[in-house]
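Example for tutorial group B:
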């Protein structure tokens, strides 16, 4: 008897299905997804009920788990109250593709190696219309909702989509007026992001880079060296500044070939709208802010004043 009863419980237990509701999905599209997953049996009635109750405008995007069948009232309640099974993943500003891969792997079990390979895949870059060495710089730092073992390509699609939602027509027009390409603006923004510790200094740091670029001066940005070194360092040595790479802004004039991190909206805006200064140098004070100088002599004195040796 006990074995028969156990078998009955196993056979009668409901199945669990998962559906993903995306931003912009209307109640008909949601009803279709629920019906095709067998969570509900009457999609037309679901859509009608959602409208009658005024819940058709309250549907929340996300990944949902349902028992089959769930019933249309219960299904609607879940998606209106936002009972998702998503995993919240926050990508900090200034992280690079390796950092992002590690964060998503830790939080969701995503394949980090595949993620990095895809971020360097030229065919994927072509598909997005991005003319850059890698997707570095275009993976917008933000909070995302993912799920266990999310495919790396899905993560990339989410992050690229968020970037192009941010980079609007006004930004494109400003970029064109400056004579920069999209990759160049994103690359410049990544340098600003890597140097700036306080938002208020971003446009000033941007002005230094713009001034140097206009004069044909090397940018001499330490973060570009840190990006290409095989191991992470807190302090650079003079020998590090001679490393052979097009990303070495101490030996190569102009911008590096691509971004060195994924910049925030503030950094991108700073790249597009630099402050009006005649600064050519800056040195970190050690408290997150910088001293800005117009001449090399001023710069040397500023470094001496704070005890900097490089």
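The residue assignment follows.
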């Amino acid at each position: 008897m006990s074995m028969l009863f156990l078998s009955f419980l196993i056979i009668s237990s409901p199945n669990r299905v998962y559906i993903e509701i995306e931003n912009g999905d209307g109640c008909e599209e949601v009803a279709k997804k629920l019906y095709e997953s067998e969570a509900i049996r009457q999609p037309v009635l679901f859509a009608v009920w959602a409208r009658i109750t005024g819940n058709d405008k309250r549907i929340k995007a996300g990944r949902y788990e349902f028992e089959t069948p769930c019933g249309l009232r219960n299904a609607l309640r879940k998606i209106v109250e936002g009972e998702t099974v998503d995993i919240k993943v926050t990508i900090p500003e200034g992280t690079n593709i390796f950092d992002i891969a590690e964060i998503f792997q830790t939080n969701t079990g995503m394949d980090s190696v595949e993620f990095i390979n895809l971020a360097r895949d030229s065919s994927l870059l072509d598909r997005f219309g991005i003319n850059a060495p890698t997707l570095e710089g275009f993976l917008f730092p933000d909070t995302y909702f993912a799920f266990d073992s999310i495919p790396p390509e899905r993560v990339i699609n989410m992050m690229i989509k968020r970037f192009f939602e941010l980079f609007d027509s006004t930004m494109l027009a400003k970029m064109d007026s400056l004579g920069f390409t999209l990759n160049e603006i994103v690359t410049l923004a990544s340098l600003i992001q890597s140097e700036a510790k306080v938002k208020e200094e971003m446009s000033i740091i941007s002005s230094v880079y713009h001034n140097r670029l206009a004069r044909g001066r090397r940018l001499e940005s330490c973060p570009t060296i840190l990006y290409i070194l095989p191991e992470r360092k807190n302090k650079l040595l003079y020998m590090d500044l001679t490393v052979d790479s097009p990303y070495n802004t101490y030996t190569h004039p102009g911008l590096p070939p691509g971004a060195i991190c994924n910049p925030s909206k503030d950094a991108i805006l700073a790249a597009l709208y630099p402050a009006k200064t005649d600064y050519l140098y800056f040195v970190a004070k050690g408290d997150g802010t910088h001293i800005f100088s117009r001449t090399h002599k001023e710069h040397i004195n500023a470094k001496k004043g704070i005890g900097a040796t490089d």
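Residues 169-306 form one domain. Compare this with the pattern of hydrophobic and polar residues in the output above.
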